[in-house]
Fold these 2 entries.
Entry 1:
Amino acid sequence: MPEYGAAGQGGTAAREVGGFLLRRREQIAQRWADETLFRTVFTVSREEAVEAGRTVVEALAQVAGADLSADPEAPGFLVVREQLSQIGSARTRTGLTPSQVSHDVDALRPPTVDLLVADLPDAAPEAVREATNVLTVLMGTLRLVVMETALSEGQALIDRQRLQLLEMTTPVIQLWDGIVAVPLIGTLDSARSQIVMETLLESVVEQRARFAILDITGVPTVDSLVAQHLMKTVAAARLMGAECVVSGIRPAIAQTIVHLGLDLGTVVTRATLADALGYALRKLGTDIVSEASHGAGER
Amino acid sequence: METAAGVEACLPIRSDMDLVWVRQHVRQAAALLGFGLVDQTKLVTAASELARNTLVHGGGGRMEAAHVVRGRVNGLRLVFADDGPGIPDLDRALTDGYTSGDGLGMGLGGARRLVHEFAIDSAPGAGTTVTVTSWSVRPPLPREEA
């Protein structure tokens, strides 16, 4: 950042630290491999941890050499960004909080500082302090980069899951010749009910369905917006020649709908999916009869 | 009160996702306070309507949940507040079927019927605050022995 880039002395110290990191990369990587962070992420072999540590140290050396110790966007970090995000997300997946992960990354600093001080036995105290400062800033930036990549990984995961949720909402099931059913599950917001309506209307055409059953057993809350979406879907299906039956209305939901003042009078409703299927079958002129009553005389 | 942890909360209402959060919190809090299934469902539905009003008409806001006690009956008080344009005509807004958006116009009036106590405070330009309270009328209280 500016204050480091501008100070000429800081620049020298930064280059020195860069040189130190490159010279001692093997030793540093060996030390890091024994720290919690590397031990828990690279569990297969110690060699793997050392290898990973070496790449990170080399990247740090490049960043320090370019005098960009405080810049998380430094080009040197690009190379190891994926590796760092792997480290960060592997730790958060095990249930660690971001601050715990941050603490783990910070644990890499003391052994590195020890090595740096040991590496400068004849330097003036002034220069040692300068170099230690640069290294501390550099390690702080590393910490920032790890956290940043881990968090953006989390955000990407959330976005993916949201899309997955949208997709898994609406299987249309053919229950009988001419009867399709959609079991609705979870929250029916505008985006999801739009998808429900589309897939239902498409399957009405595909299956030449006369009846479409919307089962809301899995919808925890039916408020006026959900009811509005249901009624719109029913109206649209009716335009296409299919009759909609809404099933799965639980007692608590029924009472709530009444209190809310919603008028579902235009919609055929049934308590259970089985009732709705029976209603549709009878309307189609079919019925399911049990074998016992049918063949009672043969016993 | 040991249930306070799961009841008291201030949740932001800024997106559709937040509505899900509001509903889940109200359901959990109501269950903790001993609400029956029907009362839970009513309160959650009312919260859903009011939170959506806060989001759609108020341009976002927040919900505060608080545990209230009257005698030995637990209650849940929910305050929905926004800094939106406010409601110019409260009576008309509470009329079933009246809507300033494209909804059914049942939200506010419906919510009032779903809760035990309902208060609304709004003025043009000053935002809207809706306070609702419901009581767990059938708590598992020990019977008073004579």
Entry 2:
Amino acid sequence: MEAEAAKLIGAGLATVGMGGAGIGLGLIFGNYLSGAMRNPAAADKQRGNLMFGFAVTEALGIFSFLIALMLLFVEL
Amino acid sequence: MPQFDPNVIEPQLVWLVISFGLFYFLMARLALPRISGVLQERVERVADDLDQAEVLKRESDEVREAREATLAEARAAAARKVAEATARARADAEASLAALDAKLAQETATATARIAEEQAAARREIDRVAAEGCREIVKKLVGEAVAASVTHKAVEDAVASLRRGEA
Amino acid sequence: MANPLEQFEVVRAVPIEIAGIDASITNASIWMLIVVTSMTLFLVGGMRRRALVPGRWQSMVELSYEFVANMVRENVGTGGRAYFPFVFTLFMFILGANVTGLIPGAFTVTSHLAVTFAFAALIFLGVIVIGFARHGLKFLTLFVAPGTPAAFLALIVPLEVISFCTRPITHSVRLFANMTAGHILLKVFGGFIVSLGAAGGVLAAVGIFPLVFNVALTALELLVAVIQAYVFAILTCVYLNDAVNLSH
């Protein structure tokens, strides 16, 4: 297999990792919403935690996206 | 990717140190003392204002208490005066009422006495007239005068018997 | 379509070399200075009246101060007061860089790993120095979670050491990758708009969709810019807390 083709396949495979981040984000927002429905009074105070969890989880998806970018564009 | 180009790392780091150092200096010396100064001042001002409000509230409480004391005093004095005036008025009224009663009683007594007197006089007059009439009738019937005392006695007896019959 | 990575290119405007160190003025350094200037103007200008009853601008300045102060107080405690100016400067610098980077045509300072890694490494080394200065060798108990059975220590301690050492990497890559990915996405959709518009006819009309999407994406990126600055600062506080309070 040519190195270029392997890079492209690897980049595609790397983006699979974003699915995990997607699941994680869904869990975060879903659980936040179900918690907020049970106790709407406490929801506002947890919005900071929500955003923090969102950012930290989303970063993992971004990491895999970054790996894909590096495979595609970084010349070693 | 340009991010992984080793040629551009050095100038970025140099300028990052310069700009971040400058920014840190500006923040630590210029911006942060100002902001915290204003915030501190506001906290102190608010605390001061609260203290002042407390003092003013205490003063107003004192004034209100004094006013209430004065008011209560005035009210008590007024009540006392009213009571005095009422008592005096009642005493006056009772005195004048008693005087009036006495006067009326006296007048009633004199009037009653006069009525009794006049009644007696009227009765005597009636008796006299009746006795006179009786003597005239007897003189006409008998043709002879009868002593006044006799007729008088007869009329008195008749009236007495009439009164008994009435009773 | 233009290369979406072109926006990250560092271009030397004035090549300078001092004592063998390449200190060229580049677009990156110009934008760093723009960030510093604009944030300083924002923070100092807002306080120029020192009003007891703040106006809109002063409220914003005070709000950002209180925001960072609360963040430090909640995550580090009273021992963190000494590091407040650093965290505040860091937050404001990254926030300014992220937000000014969203201006079309601007260079995003924080989209370069060299910059974010410099911050992360500074914090990492700072945490180690502060930790040893405050607690001496007891700082090493950071790697031993309390209540760990002795049998597991051989397993737990290397894991803790590894997770501690990867901190600067995740810390820096999170910010860098978020900024890079966001800007690439904006550029890719921008490229769609241009190429669809150039195609003309029906395709040009279809080009409205990537345009609308790009507008929405810009709003999302603004949110991400603020959140990533917040996350970077709060992680700095969390790491500082390890060094200052040394209690799991």
